[in-house]
Amino acid sequence: MYIIRRLFSWRIANPVLSGICRSFLWMLLGAFILSLLLWGSGLQEKDLSMYTYIVHGLAVIFGGLTAGQRAGRKGWYQGSLTGGFYGIIILLIGFLALDSALSGADLLWVMAAAALGALGGMFGVNLQKA
């Protein structure tokens, strides 16, 4: 029984990497929900831009929450690193896969992701188990 419990209790020790993984899981769940919403309603693809920002924002907040919870201290720092790296990875994916050009607004987006991650990290430190 111990072997099974140990096998399924795999944890990432680095708080930032753990937060980024959790962010991508939330982003995948949000993208799935948005695709179902797009498929099942009269919503057009051009109307999804606001919802994708909401999904990315929530993903960064939950990733920062995880990073702050795993770190135990300096949640704002761990969360902002998580949000910044998440934003950079998303921009790199958009640049490489969609051949989109980088602009000054992208830097603003990364800074907003870092700020949302810091907010999540501050809450995550306070949600630690006693």
Radius of gyration: 16 Å
Oligomer: single chain
Helical content band: over 70%
Strand-and-helix sequence, N→C? HHHHH
Number of helices: 5
- 3D shape: globular
List low-confidence stretches: none
* Total count of domains: 1
Main beta sheet: none
SS content category: mainly alpha
Mean pLDDT: 87
Q: Determine the N-to-C terminus distance.
A: 27 Å
Number of strands: 0
Beta-strand content:
under 5%
Features:
mainly alpha
Q: Concise description?
A:
With 130 residues, this protein is mainly α. It contains five helices and no strands.
Description:
The protein is mostly helical. The protein has one domain. 79% of the residues lie in helices and 0% in strands. It has five helices and no strands. Helix 2 packs antiparallel against helix 3 and helix 3 crosses helix 4. The longest helix is centred in the first third of the chain and has 26 residues, at 15-40. The chain is globular, with a radius of gyration of 16 Å.
